[in-house]
Amino acid sequence: EGQAFFAEHDAWVITRKGEGRPDGEYVGPFLFVEPNAGDRLYLYAQESRLEESQREFMESHTELVPRYMFPWLSALALLYPISAMNDYGAEPVSATTILGYGFSNLGYIMVAGAVLTKSFRILGLETRTQTLLGAAAFWIIGVVLSNI
Predict the structure, then answer these.
(1) 112 Cβ contact list (under 8 Å, min separation 6)
(2) Contact status, residue 62 vs residue 7, Cβ threshold 8 Å
(3) Which sign, positive or negative, has the C-alpha torsion 38, 39, 42, 45?
(4) What's the alpha-carbon Rg for the chain, to the nearest Å?
(5) Distance from CA of residue 138 to its chain's centroid?
């Protein structure tokens, strides 16, 4: 469907690997992989018509665009590591220790988010695996910063 849309609209030029960049006011390349054929295509769009064409594509494929509300729960969860850093900062410690403490607490909250809601969308993490990997990364960074 995507390839058909780009082929039908003259705002887009489709090329394959090894073909040159089109002449004129084109931006890109944007990589497009055809799922069925595994073909890698390079898209170039006329700069003046890019926004209009993207809007038209999004309107014609609204079922593919996820409709999420603002992630209030994960946004509120961020208050925990922020308040932890604020409370920890009352003692005479270095800034890296305070930051590490906050990152470690963020890791703990992200694990809770992975278990309870399978995501932590305020940081763009949509799946449980992404959230757990992010939690591990924040926790490790926090431990390292706390022990510098």
Answers:
(1) 77
(2) no
(3) negative
(4) 22
(5) 16
pLDDT at 48 (0 to 100): 79
Q: Give the pLDDT of residue 88.
A: 77
Token pair recorded at residue 76: 């509120």
Residue-wise pLDDT for 97-117, tens only, equals 999 999 999 999 999 999 999
pLDDT score recorded for residue 1:
59
According to the per-residue pLDDT averaged within each range, which of 4-13, 59-68, 136-145 is highest? 136-145
The two three-digit tokens of residue 139, written as one number: 């926790």
- Asked whether the predicted pLDDT for residue 60 surpasses 80, the reply is no
Distances in Å between the Cα of 42 and the Cα atoms of 23, 39, 51, 52, 132 are: 14, 10, 18, 19, 34
Which amino acid is located at 68 in the chain?
Y
**Where do runs of H (alpha helix) occur along the chain?**
2-8, 50-60, 72-77, 79-88, 95-116, 128-146
Task: Say how far apart CA 70 and CA 78 lie, in whole Å.
Answer: 14
